[in-house]
Specification:
The protein is α/β, with parallel strands linked by helices and 219 residues long. It has one domain: Rossmann fold. The protein is built from six helices and twelve strands. Helix 1 packs antiparallel against helix 2 and helix 2 packs across helix 3. 36% of the residues are buried. The mean pLDDT is 92.
Length: 219
């Protein structure tokens, strides 16, 4: 069962940050672009935290004791290198005691650059059994890398909650995730949904190559 929460449907400062994230002129400021990805991660972490379980805790202040509801456990925050790093940092600044997982995945084209496949070559992850897993990636295009990453992470361990957090997603990519992950309870948190996905797996209007915008062009 897949549940989708589209944050752009509610008017808030979140949409202002999304506007900056997509703006081709503002994107030229690389530090600003990374910071906007972090801000998106911070807000999504806050929204996701509302689904967690909480316990009463007594906190000693300088003048007395205050009972406060605090999170029962910290999640595991996973991201796909390299574009996901600023997004991950934003979430980690909110869930500051969380564990982290890192995955290396990329799209490999054939010699004619007509067909392609997603290759996942590296996992670094803590034990996920019975944990809350948040997989954050700025852009969900075809959805293949998200699905392959989750399948790899869950090969031998079963999280109790799975959240996917993306800044921009294509409708085709969301449909693909819903078809292929229908047996697991997954919640998708998305900042904005675009209707067009080109044959080269570009989301339109999208926001460009996130990795290049954040860290410079690759070979």
């Amino acid at each position: 069962m897949i549940r989708i929460n589209n944050l752009e449907k509610t008017d808030s400062v979140f949409n202002q940050i999304m506007a900056e994230l997509r703006d081709a002129t503002i994107q030229q400021d690389r530090m600003r672009f990374r910071r906007n990805l972090e801000r998106i991660g911070e807000i999504m972490a806050y929204e996701i935290s509302k689904t967690f379980e909480y316990d009463d805790e007594e906190v000693q202040t300088p003048l007395g004791i205050k009972e406060i509801r605090t999170m029962r456990e910290q999640p595991v925050i996973a991201t796909i290198l390299r574009a996901g790093l600023p997004f991950h940092n934003g979430m980690l600044s909110m869930f500051d005691h969380a564990d982290s997982a890192f995955i290396a995945a990329y799209r490999k084209y054939d010699k004619n650059e007509e067909d392609s496949e997603i290759r996942v070559e590296y996992y670094s992850s803590p034990n996920l059994e019975g944990r809350i897993l948040i997989l954050c990636d700025p852009l969900l295009a075809t959805g293949e890398s998200i699905v392959k990453t989750l399948q790899g992470l869950m090969e031998e361990e079963e999280p109790k909650q799975i959240h996917i957090a993306v800044a921009v997603a294509s409708q085709d990519g969301l449909d693909y995730v819903k078809r292929t992950m229908s047996r697991q309870p997954v919640t998708i948190w998305v900042g904005s949904i675009d209707e067009e996905l080109t044959a080269r797996a570009y989301v339109v209007p999208g926001m460009g190559d996130v990795g290049d915008l954040a860290y410079g062009e690759k070979r």
